């Protein structure tokens, strides 16, 4: 009984602290709200370690730090718009000229056994997740080093197209630069998804808001947070051999994809019933990957002219479509849905 009273008192105190926006760290916030799962390394690595770190991240005229952080791939968010020529160009094989065709190079030999018109397919069917299957994939390391900032700090900065000039001025970004265009595109994407799409989604501008959204969407704090794990430095593209496939979830989950921005912003969405797999693979160079793959059972809300349907030549809502997650994307799964996945 005494333990229950003490526990209740602790929870009450923490709730009071949270509600009054006291200066508790994002890491403590996670531990209080999601006590049954560890913070993934890819999150912990980008948390500010002290108030000095936060002050250092406040961009000014003399700061030479990177203004906007970019990742390699954002396939998880490409289902909502019409596939662009740039997106297709990134994954298609180059068609060599007659002179180039006569030259036998290492690249041409490596590509000779690729199917269709693609170097690799960012989307695939569940049957492709089979032991012994050899697939071509780019790096699982997304390279987006954007740091998490505290909720108190990011809520003092606008995140709206109406305030785009104020945002650019805050981070000392030239309005005619590529960084400015990226800032605008990310904010526009985040504002459009609230209006145009029926999936439950949000752009989390802090770790605290990501945690809150996961709790509201999944309805429990008994949640497992998992990410892709990479052992080694992967090249941009190589062959991987699947060694083991383990289904770790079958039901609603939430996935958060890191966006290109001046600090850590994640597009989080709950896309209906999904199957989640942990896929152990080894690359041609010996790189070991335990990749997370999500298969969406219902694709009826995706753009019919989006990249998944162009690649697979399918129509929305006809069959589950799968994709892998890079190592900075987080999957939140109710623990009752998971099997014996080792975090």
UniProtKB/TrEMBL annotation:
<protein>
    <submittedName>
        <fullName>BURP domain protein RD22-like</fullName>
    </submittedName>
</protein>
<dbReference type="InterPro" id="IPR004873">
    <property type="entry name" value="BURP_dom"/>
</dbReference>
<dbReference type="Pfam" id="PF03181">
    <property type="entry name" value="BURP"/>
</dbReference>
<feature type="signal peptide">
    <location>
        <begin position="1"/>
        <end position="22"/>
    </location>
</feature>
<keyword id="KW-0732">Signal</keyword>
<dbReference type="InterPro" id="IPR044816">
    <property type="entry name" value="BURP"/>
</dbReference>
<feature type="domain" description="BURP">
    <location>
        <begin position="123"/>
        <end position="335"/>
    </location>
</feature>
